[in-house]
Structure formats: structure tokens, C-alpha cells
Amino acid sequence: MNQDRGIARDILHVHVPAFAVAVARMGDSSLRQRPVAVALPGGRSVLLAVSPEARQEGVYRGMGSAWAQRCCPGLRIVSPEPEATARVGQALADVAGRHTPLWESPRPGHIFLDLNGSGRLLGPPRDVAARVEKELARQLSLPGSVGVGGNKLVARVASHFLVDGGVCDVLRGTEQGFLEPLPLDLLPGLGEVRRRVLEDWGVVHIGELAGLPRSHLVAVFGAFGATLQVRAQGEDWEPVFPAAAQPGVEEGEALPRDSADPEELVFYLRRLTERACFRLRAADQVAGSVVVRVRYADGRTAHRTGRLAPRTSWDHEVLPVVQGLFIAAFARRVRVRGLGVGLFRLSGRALQLDLFRSPPRERRHEALCQAVDNLRRRYGFDAVAWGAVSQPRET
Amino acid sequence: MSSEGGIPVPLHMHSCYSPLWGVRSPGALVERAMALGYDTLALTERNGLYGLYFFLNEAARASIHVVCGAEVHKNEDRALCWIRNAVGYRNLCHLLSELHCNPDATLPQLLTRYRDGLVLASDVPRVLGALARDGREDLYVEVSPGHAMHRALASARARNLPPLATVRAVGLDAADLAVHRVLRAVAGKTTVFHLGEGETAPGGDLLVGPSRLAAYFPHCPDAVANTRRVAAVCRWQGPGEDSVFPAYRGMTPEQAWRELQCRARDGVARRYGTTTGSVATRLERELTLIREKGFASYFLVVADIVGRSQRTCGRGSAAASLVAYALGITHVDPIRHNLFFERFLSPGRVDPPDIDVDFPWDERDRVLDDVFRVYGPQRVAMVANQVGFKWRGALREVARAYAVPEDEIRRIEGVLRHTPALGSWADSDGLRGIQATPMLAAPWPEILAVATQLSDHLRHLSVHCGGVVIAPSDVRDHAPVQVAAKGVPVIQWEKEQAEAAGLVKIDLLGNRSLAVIRDTLAAVAQHTGNAIDYAAWDPLADSATCDLVRRGATMGCFYVESPATRLLLQRMWGEQRYPGDREKDLFEHLVMASSIIRPAANRFIREFVARMRGAPWHSLHPLLCPVLDETYGIAIYQEQITQVAMALAGFSVDQGEELRKVLTKKHKARRLADLAGDFADGARVRGVPSAVVDEVWQQVLSFSGYSFCKPHSASYALVSLKCAYLKVHHPAEFLAAVLSNRGGYYQPFAYVSEARRLGLAVLPPCVNHSGVAYRGRGRELRVGLLEVRGLSSEGARRVVAEREAHGPYPDLSSFLQRTGLGPADVRMLARTGALDGLEKPSSRSRIVKMADVLSAGKDAQNKCMTLFEDQAPKEPFFAPSLSPEHLRRLEWETLGFPVTFHPLDPWREPIRNLSRRGPSLVAGRDLHDHVGRRVRTVGWWITGKVVETRRKEPMEFVTFEDTTASYETTLFPDVYQRVRRQLSPLRPYLLHGKVEAEFGVSTLTVERMDFLDRHSSLP
Prior knowledge:
The complex is a heterodimer. Chain A is α+β, with helices and mostly antiparallel strands. Chain A has helices spanning 19-27, 52-56, 65-71, 82-97, 119-122, 125-140, 152-161, 175-179, 192-200, 206-211, 214-221, 223-232, 262-282, 315-329, 360-379, and strands at 11-15, 36-39, 47-50, 76-78, 103-104, 110-114, 145-149, 166-169, 249-259, 285-296, 301-312, 336-348.
């Protein structure tokens, strides 16, 4: 990270437009080359991502889905697929990771690569950009564009500037000239509301924004007005933040059929908890917090987080907490499609045991757990199950 | 009644009028109780008497003895109350009222205070203890299987109180319990899976036969025997026949009648000048009847309420009454227009009369307040609406209770929309047919089965829009009162049961057109100085007004402005002249036109117009001549049903009235079948051929749903004509009032277009010229600040008040200074163009920028005191000018519709290009020159009405307009099916279709529809 003014930096911005749509198209070819949008089900939900074809029809992100459907009868609205999106996002990150250890993905479909000082290893940034684009297209069949610039802002504008993919390299020192004729909506952080205010002042291009009296901008937009102007002039000193790692164990499952029956749901929840605890014990770790995730049949999700005190990895200590969290999380009147249990705030298992805890009965429980673990390690997880965990009846 | 030890009595029963608790209708309960062999049945709703009179009716029909009461509960306390006598009824009403209205009262307190005349039972120790301390008479311990019976019995023995056996029935069989669970889930906004144990009735709470009931209590037979004892003392079988109404100013009935007579005679003299023989006879007949029935006070009270407002319109059947006309309650001459008095009052009619009065919508709340103030809050309450489940609501709620996600609900609704058997919910074959639809996976068949049973269920009360009841001393002597969400006291019954309870309802309703007339007259008086004398005003005498009505140019005129009515008027008097058209009485025909437009009468409308325009016709039967000749042999008015039945089938007035009333009701099948039989029999006796009977009966059936009586339509026609008069002579003032009062049939945009077509200049809002409301004067219509979206009403008011107090605003900074508006308000005003005149040069972008910057600067100054006086930016304001398209968009966005241009104006050039190729492109104004030809038109959507064909397929009548005229189109089912999702008020359309004409009026039958912007783009 180099924050000094004088030194030119090399930043790449990889952009997959309408990422959620691109992901949906990977799984369903009938969605290609037609207006598609991603939104949670329900007439009052808003569009989360809009394909370029849909945008041409006047559909935009943030539009009400019922209204969008009315305005564009040919629009296909699909539900978001969080698992697939995460998977493809990870693949994208893997591509970035092959070129630099310093990359940042602020949201799915966007990755900044910091190539500072790697010129001799990787070649000119423009070549790297071309390689990245090729890898996206070949390995992931994702449409993407790559911008190259002296800072994150310019790289990002450059990648958005390209409509149909490709590489756009902005020469260092020509940033302002590059930005001037571009329309306002390419300026990051401006936002729909501010853009419309500026347009009503007759300001249409980034260059005009750069030339406005700063006092006018500050009066209307506050301190952010000044920031905007600096950006419009092509300056940005934000570093590329590396992804923070948060270790934890997560287990998730899509139910064989949607259900709202608490008994049935608790069955799956038990199994997930057991699996997560099993993995935790295998790693010789204990967890300090637990999260229960509920994914409803309509695609909405809810989660509740709770503390485990003292830290533990035993099923019989985690389960009651998980059940309590589940009751709090399952508050909507909608059937559940998937469940997840995660254990976080990990630390190594304390070797010294509490003097006053673990009465004999508990110790027996722990010993049993360990025995089951051994069996499972040898014969697979499903080789043995608790008697209380019976498969829910089929109706 | 049989002796003790006879058949036990089920004393604890809930019907579907126990809100979200009971399952079956009172009728079903009575029927099952009879079948099981009971001779007495009780009804105890939860915390109310919501279905009392429906139950009494059903019981009377089945001649089963009844015990009436309620189950009261609050927090953990609960008890049962049964009414012994009239005192008990009064006390129960008070008890329930207080339970609902007084959050501090505890149940034991209320029960001890109001226990006179009631038999009480409970199984809650706290309640029993308090009641036993107060007195042990008529007090029982409720013992029910499944409800800790042993504890209740022990409690009875310990306190030495008699036990009483009940089953706490919520339904009749096991399936009802599933419905009950769903109802509880709906009540708790949860799912049937989440329901806890205490939230629903346990499995055994069903009505069982007498022997089974006795078998539940082998260990305490006296509990069963006691049910008979309770039934024996509860003799109250409903209230008396008398109407409940306050005496007018404390007068005796005779005094009130004398007063009424005196005032009516004065009124007649004032209305008619000299009293002719027919008027005097009619007046005496009415007065005699009113005296017999004791309704004098009622008339006087209504006249009093009406007298408090300058402009009212008595509507409904009351307009047939000469007395009401004389008292100034109604304004249509019942003699001149031949209005049928028996529709309002008749000797055999048991229910009280019903006078409905309209007030200007913004004065109605004040009138209601006045009524509460004058008669005292204790004596007045509003009538309730009992809100239940419509089929779609039922389906949704049940599905939610089964945790079905919203999008699946919508999808299934879509599937069901195309199921033909939807109308027959209650029909079990129909239901099975739907359940077998392949798209309906589990749990949908179950959901449907439950949803079909949720038609009559009471969900909650809302306030009837204008019904008020007034009682002599306290409404709570006659009905339980609770507080509605709006904060007003409301009785637990809707109008039917309120009537059955003897309460006399006065409907005080809001009417926007009365306010329109009021505002127009005020503006005209202000602008021209000549005030129209409202009382002496006869718009019929004005030929221009009559001409406007005949042309159907009545957009904006109350009651006759819908496209259907306007088309009908045009057809009745269209351009093609027929001999004698002019002589036809305009008022009579206007009344007919506004009455014949009702749901089931479509096929009679064409016949009506044909006959009016000279097609030969003959009466179906000579007996019908006196009744139907007035309306060309076609039944148009509600009361003609009564008259037809009287003339053709020899019904009495009251039988005829019953037939009329039954037709408007929801659950009419059974009674209607009886009446159809009577009708056919009666007609046969009089020698009427059966073909004629069938034909007439078809006409009678066309009155199902809603229909109008002539007095009502005549009252409204008078208001319509006044509107028409104002529209002809003061179009700017009139349309300004229509737009300002809102609530017309059309969107504001349609009225603005109408103004433009009338040659008015429509001016955009301006802080130096606009009022809050629209202003019309001469040939100008100025848009009011109320139309500026996002402008706070307080901000709009301040702009106008400050200008009126201290003169116009010279420049922007003085405007900001003087009004002190916040940035949000200023932003909207600037973008609308309302600030355009304040600065030079006045380009919109510069004004907007200045307004944004200066108001934001001021706002910041107001928020924090600064050392320096003026921190406003000093840099000059330069701004590039905006494109014409941008300016148009700003106007559209800030006002919701374009004002200074027509939305098709920007398309002039593309339209011209389009007309050079393809079939002829016709302007809306010229459609009638192309009758029978296929043409194309350009159109902007104005309004549409979806109807169903006889084959239950949806189709739509759509009104479009272009820059020359608005025109009507028809989208038949095949076309409608294709294009319905594309219809919106946001894009221009290119319509392909055939011009068709009927009675000289042309409409376009659309065959194909495209977006205009698909064909060509804006330059």
C-alpha cells in the first residue's frame, strides 16, 4: 500500500455487470440474451440486479418488481441464489488471488487488484488485465470488463466505462481528461438522489461537477460535496483492503421439502449442530458464539446470534442455545427452505478443566460424544446417530 | 318447556360471530341442534352480541327456544352471562360496552356491578370468589370436559355453588376444529404450527347430542340438570317491536306530530306557493302514516341536523316523501316527478324508515361532531361494518396460517383465477373440482377446504361510513358499544341487526360534489359579484345546460361523468336526430339514464335506448302498463320491482318490498326461490302466460347487486344538473373546484385535458399566483400548490398566507426569508417551476440551483447559530440550460402529470411520419367520419373498466385521448387477454381497430395495440 502522492500506483478493477444475473445465467441458459432481473419474490420487493437487456427496456435496479413486470412484460424475474453467488464469487476471488495477494472484493462482482511493484514479475498492468479478462471468460464463462488506473476510483470508472467487456487502461496523468466528458452516473458514490439534483442544475458530465464552486456543493451536500468534487477531479487515495479472515465452522442444508413444522425443523437443526460440533472437536477448538440462519421458501433470510459461555464444542451444550436462537429467528409466517448453524469466535480448547463443572453425568456425555466421534471418523458421519434424532415421518 | 331431568341445554356455544373463534353460522348451529334433538339452544359469543339478531331470526324460523348471552373474558378472567330478562339485556350491553371501552375495569368488578337480570357462570376461582361474596343467586361453576373439570368440580364443592355442564362448542365436528385453529392463527398473526396450547380450544369443544352431553358427566348429574334450570329462568327471547328513538326536544309523540304537521304545511306553502289538491292529499296521507307509526320525532331530528348545513342532498328513498321535501331534507319534488312513497314508508312495513343525507365531504365530520355534541356522547354511536373474509382474503389468510410464502399465494391465486367454478365456493362438488387441479400440491387442497368455510366469519368491526344511531337515554341500554380504531363509539352491529334491535339509523354521508358546487359558487361570487340563489336555482331552465347533458359532455358532473353514462347520454340524444327528441323531458330521462347503469342490466340498456329513440315496443302485459310505461316498458328503478310484483302477481306492498330487499342481499338463494314461486303462482292466477312471467322475472333478477330507486337518482340528478350548469357557464371555476376537491371518477390529468379542450389556458403552479387549491377565473385555470408532489401541506399554506398578508414575493431570497420553508419544500417548488418568475435570467436550472443552495444554506444557519451573519455562498450562479425533454420530465415528476403540454405533444413529429405510411391515422375528434372502417389512432390511457362477458371472460372498456378528443374503446376478451398487462397511464399507444357506431355514437373496437414508442422514437 502506497499512499504517497507522487508515486503512480497500478490498480485493476474487475467488474462483472449485474453479477447476480450473470450467476443465474450460468445455471439457466434460457435466461441469456433477454431481459432478466433478480429480486426476492413478492410484488413489493425491489430489483437487486438488472441485466443490460432489461436496462434497455427502462428497467433499473431498485425498481419495484411488480411495476417492472408491468412496464416490461417480457422481463424474467428470478430469485437470488445466495449459495451459487457465493460460489462464483469465490471462483472470481481465486482468479484474482493468482495474480496478487492484495485484492479486495467490496461486493460480489467487483474486485480490486493492487499490482504495485509487481511489474517485473507479472508484466505491465494492461497485460495482467487482459489475462484476467480471458480467464474470466474461459474458466468461468463470465462476461467482465477490467479497468486499469492509478487509483481505485479511476480503475473503477474505467471498468464501468466499457459496456461489452474488454480492458480500459487510463494513462497516469490523464485522469481528469478521461473523466471530464463522462456522464455523471459513472462517478462512484454519487448516488441516484445527488445525481438528479445535479442534473436539475444542468450538470450532466463529471467535468462540469469538477468545475462547480465548491461552496455550492458543500451547502447542499455537506462535507461529502467536497469529496465528490475531489473524486470528479480524479483523485482517490483509498488503499486496497485485503479480505479479512474470520475463522469459523458453518454447516448448512437445504431441506428436502419446505416445512414450517417446528418438530421437523428441529430435527435438521440438531443434525447441523452435531456436524458443526464434530468438525470443531476434530480441529480441537471451542467456539464462543453461535449463529443460526433460516432461509425461507421465498428467499428471504433471517439469522440470530448467541453467545456460548463458557466456550464449548459439546453438542449438548450448544444445542439448547441453537434451539432458542431458532425460535427467535423463525418469526415469519413462511415455510423454511434451508437452515444453517455456524460456530465462531474460535479458540484452542483449554487443557485445564473447570474444577466445579462437569459432574459425572456430563463427563459421561462427553465421553460418549468422543466415542461417537471416533466411530464417525472411521465409518463416516452417518454411521451412527443419536436415538432422539429420528427421521421425520413422510406425509 | 319440559320438566327438570329432561333434555339438557347446550349453554355455551360460539357461532362465526365470535370474532376469530367460532366456526359455524348461527343457522347451521340451530339446524344441527334441532337435528340432535335439543329443544333449547344458547348462543354466547366472545365479548359481544355480534350475531345476536341473526341467531334470533334463525331460531324463530326453526321455532327453537333460545337462551342469549355472552362469554366475557379479560386477561385470565372469564365468565358466562345469560340474559334472564330486559334488565339483564340492558346490563349485559353495559357490561360489554365497559369491557371494551374501559381498560381499567376488571371483570369481577363489572360482573358484580351489572349482574342484575343475568345468570352467571365461571370456573376462575378469583371471579367465583368475588361473585360469591356479592351474592350466590344465579351463580354457577362452569364444568366442561377438557377444561380441568375435576378442579372446577372441587371448586364448586368447596364454595358450595351449583355446577353447570357445558361443552364450550366452537363448532360441530372435527373438521371445524381445523378451521378454528386457522382462525386463531389469523388472530395471532401466526401459523397453525406456532400456536401454543392455551391459544385454541381443545379437541373436545364441539356440540354433541343430549345423551353424549349427559354421558360426559356421569359423576355429577346435577351439573347437567342445572342446564335446564338456567334455561328455565332465561326467558328473554329478543327485544320488543318498538323503535328506539329520542323524543324531539322532550316532546310527547302527539306534540311532535303537531310540530311536524305545522312545519310541513309551512314548507309546502314555501315550496309550492299555492297548495293544489294533489299536494294536500299526499301531505295528509303521509302525515297520517307518520303519526300512526310514531316517526314524527325522527323527521324533526333529521330536519334539525340537516338545517345545520347550508348545502345538503337528501338521498335514497326518503326523497319520495313530500314531508321530507317540505322540511328541506330533500330537494326533489316528489309529486312532479311521480315518486313512489311506499318505497319509503308503508303501513305494513315493520322496520323504521331510513333517511340518508349527503353533506359536503369536508363538512361531514363537523356535522357528526355536532350530533354528538347536541345529543350527548352517551346517546349517540355510529353503526359498525362487520368485516369478514372475501374469498381472496380468506385464501390469503388461510395460506399464511399454513406458512405459505407470498409469491406462492400469488401464483396459486393466478391459477385459481382461471378456474370456472370459483363462484361456487360453498358448493362441495365445485371445491373438489378445484382441489383436483394438478398445480395444487399439498397443503393447498386443505387450505382451499378451510378457506371455503370462511365467508361469514367476523374478523373485526369497522365504522360504517355515515350511519348514526341516537337513543333516548343511553345507546348502551340497547346495544353493546365499543370504540373503533378511528376513536368513535360504534355499536357491535351493522345496519341490518341495528334495525332489528329497533335502533333507527340516520345516514350522514360525505359527498364531494356538494363541496364542488359550494366552492364554485363562492369563486363565481368573488369573481363576478353575482351570487346564485341556491334555493331558487333551476338549472333545467337553462338551455345550454340541457344541451351539455344531451351531448354527454358531463365529465366532472356528479353521478353522470363515467364513460358508460356519458356514452349512454350521447346515444339517447346523439347527433342523429329523431323526431320528438327535443320534447323528451330531460330530467326524467337523465334520472333513467343514471339508474339503468347497474351491473346486471347491460342487455336492457340497448333496448331502452332503441325504444326511447322511437323503436316500436309493446308492454309485456297490460297489467304492467301503469307501472312500466313511464320507462318504455323496461324496469329501471328499484321500486318498480315492488310495483311489478304488485301489479302482475298481486303481491301486497310489503311482499313486494320484501322481494326488492331480498334481491340486494348476499344470501338470498333460499328466500328468493320461495318468492319466485309466489310470483309465478300469483301471476298465473291473474292469467299471465308463463313466457311473460319468465321474461319479467329475468328483468327482476337484473336488479341483483346494486340498483337505484327513482327518488335517489332524482335527488342526484338535481345535483348533476347543477354541476352541468356550472360547467357550462363557469368552466374555469367549476373544474378548479372539481380538481381541488379530488375524488372524481377520473385522475386529475383527465380533468386538466378536459379544461384544455374547453379552451381554458392551464397554467403551472406559481408562488405568486397559485392558491393552495386550483383557481379558475375567466379562461384560465391555475394549478394549485396542493398538486406539487412532496410539498408539505403546511408549506403550501404558508406560501399563500404570507403572500396574501404582505404582497407578492419580489425575489428568491425574500421568498426564502419570508416563508422560512425547509430545503425539501423549496426543492419541489423550484423543480415544478413555481419559483420561475422570481429571478432574472429565469432559466429553470439556475433557479433550481439557487433555491437548492440558498435554502440549504439558510437551513444550516437556522440549525446552528454562527458568529458570521451571512454564510451563504458568494459565487455567482451559472447554470447550463436544461433540454426541453428534461423540463418536461421535471414537470411530470413534480406534478404527477403534465400541465403545460399534452403528453402526446412531444410525439407530434413521429405521429406525422407515421401517418404517411400504413392505414389511415385518425384523430380522436374525427372517429365518427370513419364508421365501419379499420383505422389507427394514437391514444393516451385515461381510464378503464373491466367487466365480464356472459361467458365470464374479462374484457375492458378503455377511455383514451389524443390532443383532439377523448374517445371510448372496447377491448374484447381475445384482445384484452393479449394486451391487458401493457395497459398503463405512462406510455403512448398506437391502436388498430374498427370504428363502430350505435345510435350515432362511434367507439373504437380495438383489434391490436402497440406502444407508440416501439414504432418510432422521440427526436
